[in-house]
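pasting for ref
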Amino acid sequence: MAHESFEDEEVAAVLNRDFVSIKVDREERPDVDAVYMAACQLFTGSGGWPLTVIMTPEQKPFWAGTYLPKTAAYGRMGLLELLSVIKQLWDTERETLLSKGNEIAEHLGKAKSDTAYEPDWEIILQGVHQFEWMYDSRWGGFGRAPKFPTPHNLMLLLQFSLLERDAKAQQMAEYTLRQMYKGGIFDHLGGGFSRYSTDEKWLVPHFEKMLYDNALLALAYLDAYKTTGNPFYRMVIQRVFNYVLRELTDAEGCFYSGQDADSDGVEGKFYVFSKQEILQVLGETDGKLFGDWYGVTKEGNFEGKNILNLLENPRYEETPSSLTEPAAKLYDYRLHRTHLHKDDKVLTSWNALMIAAFARAARLLDAPEYGQHAQKAHRFLQKSLKDGKDLRLRWREGEAAIDGQLDDYAFYAYAMLEMYQIAFDIEYLQEAVQMCERMLYHFWDEEQGGFFLYSRESEQLISRPKETYDGAIPSGNSVAADVLVRLSKLTGEVKWQEIAHRQLRFLAGDIQDYPAGHSMALLAISKAVYPSRELVCVTSEENAPAELVKFLAENPVLNLTVLVKTSKNQELLKQTALFTADYPIPESGTAYYLCENGACMPPVYELAPLYEKLVR
């Protein structure tokens, strides 16, 4: 629509004569997108992008829809025809349009009556059963094409498989992760995943690559590695990170938003090859070996060209070393063959997700270099996207802009909790608490629970929604719930326990009809309804004991919260988790206190005696 209409002289003339045209980047203004997408759904019963809305100067919409061709075609109204009709109605029947706008605005502005519901195990089980019903046993994933990765669905299934020893849940998650890697949705030459697959078998992607997808997928593959210890998942994670560091990372350490699907106006042109082209670049011998491995044919699998894939390759887990040099050569050729546009804006929420992924990888893969990348990106956010105590939503070319919204605060706090777990540096835990304090101030609904999407101090739109659906990106409400549950256990503060419970009750009430659409919320609920354990490590050393860090990296311990009190951090830790003042630091060595469901064992002075109780 951008190319067909908004870059067209004829359309521009009509728009400039009769309308005030406003183009909104939904990544920069998710609040505007959410409000008017809800309006579109009222008008049409569905939504989607590009979203087209016509409204009064008071922001009240009286027409909304999605894609429109320039002129009428195949029974679909054209944009020029619509603009002509609207102009005529505005001149002759303006009161009718104003009335419609008022009606929609009133409907959107009505406060939804949020029904709280006590979260329990049954709602998690219901969500898992819904995934079983939607599961595609042939190709992996859920439902029909187009298929989105939605990594938090897989994270939920992996968590459930460990909690319930459910082999089916693990099999669904693992098979989907493997099929996505084998398909064309994964870039086998440059690494990283595209947004979604247009077909059922993950072969033909929408070639756009986004930072958030790769962050969330890294987290999902990390969970699979933690669950199984299979080095295949480690390899995929490394290839995702290599892509992000090579192509989406700024010199200052922050992460760009993504790369477009189009090159020279053609979707996928950057990524696909003819068989003859590969042979010309690599030579007959290497070209044939490479083509045979990645399913290259003369006919191609996408508009006469080839999307590299491993769907028919039974040896997909380990690429032969003989293909390393040809792959590098073809990658370099691809870079110079055509240009790929990069979206170089830096979004706080998406950067926080990638920081969380790098932090978790540093811990689980024993890869300190990933922790360094997380720290560098974190320092950038602190310097460039923090405004006093508060956050800004985006940065580009030296300018930070737009008040931070719920996702920014919730995802940032989530990242800080992951950073804390690398080496138990108390400053990250403190910053998570500070973010949650500001999140409460800006977004919390004291009357009914839940968090609004944008702040009470921001520009006020015609409605103030609370989003809970976990789509391609988890909702801010779901991530906030996960953070609050973890924070309540880390700090022991009654305040956070009460708010976490209210948030979970709000979510449980909101997701009853379709739990599978709220997998991140179910992950948060699982942390609350399943038995939990708290481990307090008190040491005379200045840092966390190496045996503890090693044990946590190598063992998938469920619902375990770990605090480390040292001679160095004890005063700061006391400010954040007051209860730790009652745990004395030994004159030498380390003491471990393990508590379960509020009951604590006597301290032990080595971790080994607790192995059996922790890993079960």
